């Protein structure tokens, strides 16, 4: 019940940050933004930890667990399978928003599995693929050329499983790269704008500005990381590193 009650906390908080940004307009100085950013990082990281513990407790008492699962952790998780599901979910939202969606090509060993929390991996891949689809779709919407596919590559290393999401959506200017992991920055239209019917429960394509920073926190929670490398005028590569050693301490704020 506690877990369900707090399901909407992230979009509700994001809405609050957007309202703050709108009401303060340009009055927010960088120092205040930094404080807000640090507070939200601590808040969300604590939330991930608490929800992991509650979820694990509830899942361990499930009388009929999924095969290979220990609580929320799937000991034989296929990143290829999660990438496929997350891509289909992101494409369906892109279809809903734009009427079409670029293809997503996935490369890697289909038989490779490793222990991880499926819901965490789905959330991170969904956010990254969704960003790529939007960038490609908006760049090629009025073009005669076909939209190039978004590529996902799964690499199985000794220390890390790394997943790269590559798109040809035009990239991010270097001046904007520092902002993409802050909670008050989004390249999309603000969902609070009057002519935009963003709903709190519905998943919007973009606009709240919390997809990337939260995805990075999920990656770091289990000792991984998320890096974004961009070529302005061409596209963006997101590198999602997932630690497979299982020896990292919980990064409590």
Describe this structure in words.
Its EC number is 2.7.11.-. The protein is α+β, with helices and mostly antiparallel strands and 253 residues long. The protein is 43% helix and 18% strand. The protein contains seven helices and eight strands. The protein has a five-stranded mixed sheet, covered by helices on one side. Strands 1-2-4 form a three-stranded antiparallel sheet, covered by helices on one side. The longest helix is centred in the N-terminal third of the chain and has 31 residues, at 30-60. The two termini are 25 Å apart. The model is unreliable at 194-201 (pLDDT under 50).
Ends distance:
25 Å
Q: Please state the oligomeric state of the protein chains shown.
A: single chain
Q: Pick out the low-confidence regions.
A: 194-201
Helix content: 40-55%
List the helices and strands and how they pair.
Blueprint: H1 2-5, H2 9-24, H3 30-60, E1 69-70, E2 73-77, H4 79-98, E3 104-107, E4 114-116, H5 118-140, E5 150-156, E6 160-167, H6 174-177, H7 211-221, E7 225-231, E8 235-243
Parallel strand pairs: 3-5
Antiparallel strand pairs: 1-2, 2-4, 5-6, 6-8, 7-8
GO molecular function: ATP binding; pyruvate dehydrogenase (acetyl-transferring) kinase activity
EC number: 2.7.11.-
Subcellular location: Mitochondrion matrix
């Amino acid at each position: 019940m506690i877990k369900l009650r707090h399901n909407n906390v992230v979009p509700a908080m994001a809405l609050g940050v957007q309202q703050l940004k709108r009401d303060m307009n340009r009055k927010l100085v960088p120092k205040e933004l930094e404080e807000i950013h640090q507070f939200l990082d601590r808040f969300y990281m604590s939330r991930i930890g608490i929800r992991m513990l509650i979820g694990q407790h509830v899942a361990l008492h499930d009388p009929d667990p999924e095969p290979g699962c220990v609580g929320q952790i799937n000991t034989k998780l296929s990143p290829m399978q999660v990438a496929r599901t997350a891509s289909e979910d992101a494409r369906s939202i892109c279809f809903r928003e734009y009427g079409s969606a670029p293809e997503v090509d996935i490369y890697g060993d289909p038989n490779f599995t490793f222990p991880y929390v499926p819901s965490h991996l789905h959330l991170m891949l969904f956010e990254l693929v969704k960003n790529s689809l939007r960038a490609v779709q908006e760049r090629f919407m009025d073009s005669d050329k076909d939209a190039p596919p978004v590529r996902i590559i799964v690499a199985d290393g000794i220390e890390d499983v790394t997943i790269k999401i590559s798109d040809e959506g035009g990239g991010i200017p270097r001046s904007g790269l520092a902002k993409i992991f802050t909670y008050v920055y989004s390249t999309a239209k603000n969902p609070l704008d009057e002519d935009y019917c963003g709903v709190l429960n519905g998943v919007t394509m973009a606009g709240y500005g919390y997809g990337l920073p939260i995805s990075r926190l999920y990656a770091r929670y289990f000792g991984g990381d998320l890096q974004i490398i961009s070529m302005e005028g061409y596209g963006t590569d997101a590198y999602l590193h997932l630690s497979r050693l299982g020896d990292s301490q919980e990064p409590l704020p």
